[in-house]
Design goal:
By secondary structure, this protein is of the alpha/beta class. It is built from 22 helices and ten strands. The strands form two sheets. A six-stranded mixed sheet has the order 6-7-8-3-9-10, with helices on both faces. A four-stranded antiparallel sheet has the order 2-1-4-5, covered by helices on one side. The longest helix is centred in the middle third of the chain and has 53 residues. The chain is elongated and about 120 Å long. The two termini are 70 Å apart. Bound molecules: adenosine-5'-triphosphate.
Length: 591
């Protein structure tokens, strides 16, 4: 717990050192000012009552000094309150930005395999909820704790000088409350942690009801009421446990308020008796009562700080759980430098299974991709084609076997450098709500070569689309922002292809690049495929047999195994799965 506090404090200080210092300073002023005021109130009453008793105006000069001191302290207290709110806001905004930076950095660098695990999204969701503000809450609670602690000690000392019994009542009357708060903080944390999955489910149903992608099916199938019902149930389930606990805690806190009121009545009676008996002066009685009230407020503050810190320590652990997730996709020793492909990429007896799957996704596959050749992988749905593409780019590591790049195991390369060798159009390519030109340039953000953007767009068959757009390549595309122009799925796919062509990588991999293209665009793409890829090593993934027939070599992947390989003619002659698939598709095309 201590290390979590120190790590959080380091973050809070690192993100805004001066604001953090100002925050602590102003809090110190706020802890001392009310007590100085109390001491001055005592002096004020005693001076006035002495003048009343003696019937003189002796108070004159002394009273003016006391009033001036009280005004100064009062002003300092008020100013530090207003300035404190401003300083805290500045500090927390800076910390929030800083923590978002840390979360994004981690999320970007994290192994892709994490995204295949639901538990990862639970951790991410807890971290995104807590990370931006918990470290600041720890700092504020520690400041509050110090402020409350100092006030309480001073107040207890002040009250003790009046009578030890008052100090004893002040300190003991709040013990049950502190215990209670700590207990319920732990219970609430447990409930909220358990509810992470449910909270994500509610957020998912809410997205189904409000998001762009689901909006069309939602209307056509009339799913609004149905999803609203699912959301209501999930939301109620998520809040039920928490509300029960908060309800119980409130009832017990109300009972403890009765107990504290009884203690206050006792103090009133006790000080009144002592004053009537002439043991206490009027000023001392007033100071004792005010100090007791202030002491109770300090204890409340202290209790809030202690339970807040305890709660922070539980929740901040969730944020650090995400920030400390280990990456295993990194360069293994001895690290090798990546050079442009000279000979080829070999996959050697490689197996891979997605987390949580009982069956191997890829089962002992071996093949070679020679430099400059156009190879293709075909196979039925779920055969493992996309998994293979991700393994080739080292987005995942295999469970066994290896991939070599010009003879070096790719685990010895820096993954970022290694991935520069690949331009990939994924099956689930991205749409970016940016300009069309930027959408292409994202293939190589380090380079802004207008001519190459135009050439890549031409090769991907985008010339007529660009000519028809009001601002050509500069047209904002998508549907998220004002002045954007939405495109068809096929047009988006051509842009994704142009993005890969723009990237000057020696190996180009296209996973179902023509799934949304019309027959003419598909014919254009594959009939000019070799000039399009321009001598690069290419791997084409498709289940359209006509598209892959021009490849130098075709690998047939079936249920995680390479069952056949060869040229189009060789595979047709072999009369295996390729032949069956080809004949079915040819038959369907003729029918
Ligand atoms: P398609 O032609 O339909 O695109 P594919 O050959 O590309 O199929 P993959 O996406 O590689 O198939 O999937 C291979 C197997 O792994 C399938 O059985 C699939 O159900 C499973 N699978 C895919 N993604 C995941 C995942 N994230 N977690 C667990 N299993 C997965």
């Amino acid at each position: 717990m201590f290390s979590l506090f120190t790590e959080s404090l380091k973050l809070a200080v690192k993100s805004a050192p001066w604001w953090a210092a100002a925050n602590v300073l102003l809090s110190a002023v706020r802890s001392v000012a009310p007590l100085a005021l109390l001491a001055l109130v005592k002096m004020f009453i005693d001076t006035v009552s002495a003048s009343v008793q003696t019937g003189t105006a002796a108070a004159g000069y002394g009273l003016t000094a006391i009033i001036a001191a009280m005004a100064a302290v009062y002003l300092a207290d008020e100013l530090s309150f207003d300035a404190g709110a401003w300083v805290r806001k500045n500090q927390s905004d800076r910390l929030e930005g800083f923590m978002y930076g840390r979360l994004h950095e981690k999320s970007v660098s994290l192994d892709l395999i994490n995204f295949e695990r639901p538990e990862y999204f639970n951790i991410l969701s807890r971290a995104s909820r807590e990370a931006p503000w918990r470290p600041n809450s720890i700092l504020n609670n520690i400041v509050l704790l110090l402020k409350g602690g100092v006030s309480l000690l001073l107040v207890a000392g002040m009250v003790f000088t009046v009578h030890w019994l008052l100090a004893a009542v002040l300190l003991t009357v709040n013990i049950p409350g502190v215990w209670l708060r700590l207990k319920y903080s732990a219970i609430l944390y447990g409930v909220r942690r358990e509810q992470t999955q449910e909270a994500r489910r509610s957020a998912y149903f809410s997205w189904l009801l409000t998001g762009d992608r689901p909006s069309r099916e939602l209307r056509l199938f009339g799913l609004g009421r149905y999803f609203m019902g699912l959301f209501d149930r999930s939301f109620a389930q998520q809040k039920k446990g928490e509300m029960n606990i908060i309800g119980r805690r409130t009832v017990i806190e109300m009972c403890s308020a009765l107990f504290k009121t009884a203690a206050f009545v006792f103090i009133l009676l006790f000080t009144a008796r002592q004053t009537l008996a002439g043991v206490l002066s009027l000023g001392t009685m007033a100071m004792a009562l005010l100090a007791f009230r202030h002491g109770m407020a300090s204890i409340k503050e202290l209790m809030a700080a202690v339970s807040g810190l305890y709660e922070d320590s539980l929740f901040v652990a969730d944020a650090f759980e995400f920030l400390h997730l280990k990456d295993s996709i990194c360069a293994a020793e001895p690290v090798a430098a990546v050079k442009d492909l000279e000979n080829g990429i070999r996959v050697e007896n490689m197996s891979f299974t997605y987390p949580g799957n009982a069956v191997k996704t890829l089962d002992g596959i071996s093949f070679e991709l020679k430099r400059g050749e156009v190879a293709a992988i075909v196979g039925p749905n779920g055969a493992g084609k996309s998994a293979l593409v991700r393994l080739l780019c080292r987005l995942y590591d295999p469970d066994s076997g290896r991939i070599t790049f010009d003879g070096t195991d790719i685990r010895h390369f820096d993954p970022l450098q290694y991935r520069k060798q690949f331009a990939v159009t994924f099956q689930d390519f991205m749409l970016y709500n940016l300009s069309l030109g930027e959408n292409i340039r994202l293939g190589d953000v380090a380079d802004d070569d207008g001519e190459r953007i135009v050439r890549s767009a031409d090769r991907a068959g985008l010339r007529s689309l660009i000519a028809s757009l009001p601002e050509g390549l500069g047209t904002q595309i998508g549907n998220m922002f004002d002045g954007s122009r939405e495109l068809s799925v096929g047009e988006w796919q051509k842009i994704a292809l142009a993005r890969s062509l723009y990237r000057q990588a020696p190996v180009i991999i296209l996973d179902e690049p023509s799934s949304a293209l019309d027959a003419e665009a598909e014919f254009e793409l594959f009939s000019r495929f070799r000039s399009t890829v321009n001598g690069r090593t290419a791997l084409l993934v498709s289940h359209r047999m006509a598209s892959v027939s021009m490849a130098d070599r075709i690998f047939v992947l079936d249920r995680g195994k390479i069952t056949e390989s060869g040229s189009h003619e060789e595979l047709l002659n072999a009369r295996g799965l390729y032949f069956d698939m080809y004949m079915k598709q040819a038959g369907a095309a003729q029918a």
